[in-house]
Amino acid sequence: MQVEFNAIGGKAPKWTRIAEEIVEALDTQTGPMLKDYHDRVVSPWSGEKPVFVIEAADKGGAWIRRIRPTGGKGLDKWMWLRGTKPHIIRPKWAKALRFKTAYSPRTKPGAGGQYKGPGKATGPTVQAQVVHHPGTEPRKLPQAIARWARPFFVKQMKAAVKRGAKEV
User: What are the angstrom distances between the C-alpha of 155 and each of 25, 94, 101, 149?
Assistant: First the structure.
């Protein structure tokens, strides 16, 4: 989100002080809040979960804070939820693949982590040498998190600007 400031009447505020307050709010409030939202989305997951870290970069007048997933199989799960293309699955160590034919997912596309399905495979077990997987739809979890966080973020940034502008 890009923000532009203009002084209207009165004494011009110290823009550097406003910038300092914004960066402070990003580092102490917004970044940790976004990390917490990501942690909440994966908290009900079983097994390994991604570990989220806050990356900060200040480039050319832009203050960038990113929440990046890390961590082995937990990271793999997070990346799979971005969706997969159709692909072929073959056995690596066995002669055939064995799996149940019906699956009810733990999450649904577009639900933003709010749909809490059983995440269980049911149905009869089948064997196959090769499976042509149709791919999966992306769950769009980062977009849902951004939608939830937006009101809090706007409130934090307005308060930071106000604090910085007071010191004229």
Answer: 11, 56, 48, 10
CA distance 31 to 34: 5
H-helix or E-strand spanning residue 149: helix 141-166
Question: Minimal CA–CA distance to 144: which of 85, 84, 82?
Answer: 82
Number of other CB atoms surrounding residue 150 within 10 Å = 11
Helix, strand or coil, per DSSP, at residue 168: coil
Per-residue pLDDT of the chain (168 residues; tens, 9 = 90+): 556 666 566 666 678 888 889 999 999 999 999 999 999 888 888 889 999 999 988 887 788 889 999 988 899 989 988 889 999 999 999 999 998 888 877 766 665 556 567 778 888 999 999 999 999 888 888 888 888 899 999 999 999 999 988 865
Output the furthest CA–CA distance in the chain (Å, rounded): 79
